[in-house]
Amino acid sequence: MTDKVYRQLCEMMAKRGGMYPGMDIPEFYNLAGELFTPEEAAVYMAIPQGYSPPAAIAGNMGRNEEDVAKILEEMAYKGLCTAGRMGDTTFYGAPPFVPGIFEFQFMRGTSTEKDVRIARLIRSYKNAMDKTRGAIKITFPVNRVIPVNKTIKAENRIHTYHQVKTYIEKYDPIAVSTCFCRHEAKLNDPGDDCGKPNEVCMQFGMGAQFVIDRKMGRKIDKTEALNILEISEEAGLVHAAINRQEIDFLCNCCSCHCMILKTALSQPKPGLALNSGFMPERDAELCTACGTCIERCPADALTSGADDFPELNMDRCIGCAVCATGCPSGAIVMIERPGIPAPPVDQKALKEALKSSRG
């Protein structure tokens, strides 16, 4: 019976999709058995697409609502389902592995024996899946870069979705948590530490409340959120979010560990797989050919050219503005990049764009 539940879970996770869906390989079952009890796996599979109240989920299982509600809340704390209150009722959703369950495991930043065990099982599953199916191919950007607003040239058109501060001003509450990518790396190998700040990943609105209620992060005010942006920019991290005009999270990514950035940079043309809609413009009179921008560029889009002045490879440029924020002579500004469409309006539009890109 137990094996049957996990095989059914694998089939369900395959349907949920995401970057690492369910795959019928031994590594999946090793991981699933560590994350889910058989009862939790059955509850997960009873959650419909979208969000549902415990009564509906219990009805799908033919079980008592109170018992199922208790299991759902335990699962939410474990990061096996999402939750959000609407009025007096808590609704629950079943996220895919990525984005979703994998990230929730490490947002608290704890380093227990179980955390280490899960981190190793997740890495084993990802490695085995990559080997089985080959490298991930991005046909339409699932995520996008949000440029550093202060680096954009004054005469450029700046939409609200180009400005991180727009989301900070708009949403309440805001939460911050540990970068799950960098923390997962340290759990697998304590020496695998790039030195970048870790408590920098933010959530907004209902997603933030979920993180706060389950102690996966802490509530912050708008002043601290803006300060985290500055710390991230100084460290050369890239602001990355879901590729739609309304976002519910903001990652501050490094190129050495973060899944969003690493996956995009592995593509033949990273600049088309992940982009902000902007590109750097260098003032030749102000540029001193110091090489700082080349060192800071997370995409290796800048190289040393004639007389050591930087040359831009547009195929690799993701428009993050890390070069501009670090330029000591202020010689780089960001200008609008032609040919990059506006982000899809919402999740439905993003799903339609992804479906269309895959034929």
Textual characterization of the structure:
By secondary structure, this protein is α+β, with helices and mostly antiparallel strands. The protein folds into two domains: 2-133, Winged helix-like DNA-binding domain superfamily/Winged helix DNA-binding domain (Arc Repressor Mutant, subunit A, Orthogonal Bundle), CATH 1.10.10; 143-357, 2-Layer Sandwich (Alpha-Beta Plaits), CATH 3.30.70.20. Helix content is 43%, strand content 15%. It is built from 16 helices and twelve strands. It has a six-stranded antiparallel β-sheet with strand order 3-7-8-5-4-6, with helices on both faces. The protein is globular. The mean pLDDT is 93.
Quick tags:
single chain; 359 residues; alpha+beta; Arc Repressor Mutant, subunit A; Alpha-Beta Plaits; 2 domains; 6-stranded antiparallel beta sheet; two-stranded antiparallel sheet; 16 helices; 12 strands; globular
Structure, briefly:
The chain has 359 residues and is of the alpha+beta class. The protein has helices at residues 2-16, 26-35, 38-46, 54-61, 65-77, 97-104, 113-133, 164-170, 180-188, 205-213, 222-234, 259-265, 270-273, 292-296, 322-326, 347-357; strands spanning 82-86, 89-93, 143-145, 174-178, 199-204, 218-220, 238-242, 249-253, 278-282, 302-304, 310-312, 332-336.
